[in-house]
C-alpha cells in the first residue's frame, strides 16, 4: 500500500513542477517606466508581464533600499517584510491576507507575503523582500483580485535570473 502512495505523490509533484515550468516559459517581463512618485529611496525598475501565464494586468516593481534592513537577520519575519516592502506605493491602506513564507531571492534569504489593497479598484499585491549586508531588496507583484496563484513563483524566477541578480548585487554595492 505504501509504494502506490509514494508513486502517486511523486507523480503529483512532477506534474505540479512541470506546470510551474510551463507557466514560467509562457511569460516574459517587458521593462517599462517606473510609475511611482519620488520618495526617500531611489527609483527602481518596473516590468509588465507578457504571455499566457500572466493573467491580466500583472506588473512587477523592484528596487534596492541600501541601509534599510536588519543587518543580523535580513528579512526574517512578517514584521520585517511589512516594514521594508513597497506596498504603500500602491495603496495607503492594505492588509496582509496570509503570513509570509521563506523565498530565495537572488541568493538572499527572503520572504514573500500576499496583501489586499482595497479601495477604488481592489488590488492584490505580493511583496518579495530579501536582505544582504544591511541592504534590502524589495519587489512587488501587482494585479487584480484574480492574481495568478503562481505569481510569486513567476516573479522569483525572473528575479533569480543571472542578469537581474547581478543588477541587485550592483545596486546593493552602491553602483
Unreliable stretches (pLDDT < 50, length at least 5) are: 1-23
Overall pLDDT level? 85
Could you give the count of β-strands?
8
Question: What is the chains' assembly state?
Answer: single chain
| Approximate helicity band | 25-40%
Spatial separation of the terminal alpha carbons: 58 Å
Shape: globular
Order of helices and strands: HEEEHEEEEEHH
| Proportion of beta-strand residues | 25-35%
Q: Report on the biggest sheet.
A: 8 strands, antiparallel
Based on the structure given, which CATH architecture is correct? 3-Layer(aba) Sandwich
CATH class label: Alpha Beta
Task: Give the structure's gist in a few sentences.
The chain is α+β, with helices and mostly antiparallel strands and 175 residues long. It is built from four helices and eight strands.
